[in-house]
Amino acid sequence: MFLLSCTSAGYQKSREAVANFYTSPLAPLEAKVDDRRGADQWRSQAIELCIRVLSNAGDKFLTSVSGLLPLQRPSLRLSASILNSITCWPEKSWEVDLEHLESLIDEKTSCLVLTNPSNPCGSVYNKEHLQCVFPGCKFHSLATLSSDVPILSCGGLAKRWLVPGWRMGWILIHDRKNIFGSEVRPSLIGALVSGVRCLIREGLVKLSQVILGACTLVQGALESILQNTPQHFYHSTTSFLKANSEVCFKELSTVPGLTPVMPSGAMYLMVGIDIDHFPGMKDDVDFTERLVTEQSVFCLPATVFDYPNFFRIVVTVPEEMMVEACMRIRQFCQRHYRPHSDDRNELDQ
Which of 90, 125, 129, 219 is deepest in the core (most CB within 10 A)? Predict the structure, then answer.
C-alpha cells in the first residue's frame, strides 16, 4: 500500500506525514521517494481525480443527495459517464430508498457512491442500513477489506482540522495485490492522449498534474497539524456542531412551512420547504434568493444537489449568530407563508 506521491502531488515529507498518520497493522501505508503514485490535493479535488480515473464512457454511477457534490458531478460528464440519482427519505435520516436503488441497477452500473457522514444532509448511515444497501453482504471495515479489495481513500484538512480554503487533501491507495497497477482502464487521461490506456495509478499521477497541486505553506505545517493536534480539539469541534445543530433544529421546527431534518454528523442541516404555502416562489432557489435579499441570511438551495425544495444550513457559526439567523428565517416565513383553505378551516374549528 502506498500514499500517492510525485512532484505534482506534494513534498515527500508531507506525504510521509500523511502515511504515518493513517497507517495501521491492518492497512499499512508508506510513501516511497521513488514511487510516482500520488496526489496531495484538495479533498474534493481528490474525489474528482478518483472519479475520472475509474470511469469509462457509458458507465452508470449511482448516487444520492448525500453522495457527490455539485462540483464533482461534471467529472462524470467529462468522461461520458451517466449519473443517476437515488431517492432518499428525509424523514428516515436520509436513508436510501432500496426499491428505487434496485430499479436503477443494470449491466452498465459500475459504481454506487455513498458519503457517510454526508454533505449536505448530515446523515450517518448505521451498519444495519448499509447491510440493506448491500444485501447478503457481511459488514466489514475498510481496513480489513484492503488486503483483498483495492481502495482509494480521500481525506483533507478542511473539515476535521478546520483548515478550509488551503486546498490540502490526499488520496491513499490500499492495493496490496497491485490490482490498480496491473488493470488497464480507459480514463479521461486516455482520451486526452489519443486513446492511450492508462493504469489507475498512472492515471491518478497524470491527473494530479493537470492542476497546480497542494499549497506549499500548509504542506510545511501538515506534519505538525497531524501529529500535535490534541484529542480535546476533535471533541470540542463535534460538541460544538452537535449543540448548534440542536439549536437550529429546535428553532426551525416551529416555523410554518419548514421541516428541518436533524443531522447525525458533519457540519450541515437540511430544511424542507412546503413551497405550495409560499405563493410567488416557484422553488427553493426563489425562496433562498428572497431570503438573502430580505433578511441577509444565505442558505444554499438543495437544487444544486438534485434535491429541490430543500435548503442547506451550515452550522459552524457561533451560537448567537445561529439563533439570530433562525429568527430572521422565522420572520421571513411568517411574512410570506399562506395556509391553504383547508388549513384555515381546521384552525377556525
Answer: 125
Tens-digit pLDDT profile for residues 51-66: 777 777 788 878 877 6
Under 8 Å CB-to-CB from 212, ≥6 apart: which residues? none
Phi, psi torsion values for 141, nearest 5 degrees: -75, 155
Tell me: pLDDT of 40 over 70: no
For residue 117, whether the previous peptide bond is cis, meaning omega lies within 30 degrees of 0, is yes
Q: What CA dihedral angle connects 10, 11, 12 and 17, to 10 degrees?
A: -80
Radius of gyration of the chain (CA): 22
> In whole angstroms, what is the distance from residue 35 CA to residue 2 CA?
8
How, if at all, do strands 88-89 and 95-96 pair?
A: antiparallel
Neighbours of 347 (CB within 10 A): 8
340 vs 344: CA distance, rounded Å: 6
More confident residue, 15 or 309: 309
Class of residue 104 by CB neighbours under 10 A (exposed 0-12, middle 13-18, buried 19+)? middle
The whole-angstrom separation of Cα 205 and Cα 61 is 23
d(CA 189, CA 202): 9
pTM: 0.79
C-alpha cell at 117: 457522514
Q: Dihedral of CA 159/163/164/166: which sign?
A: negative
Helices (H), the chain: 12-22, 43-54, 73-78, 98-104, 127-133, 142-145, 179-182, 188-192, 200-208, 216-228, 231-252, 284-295, 319-336, 341-348
Residue bearing cell 484529542: 231
Reported residue count of the chain is 349
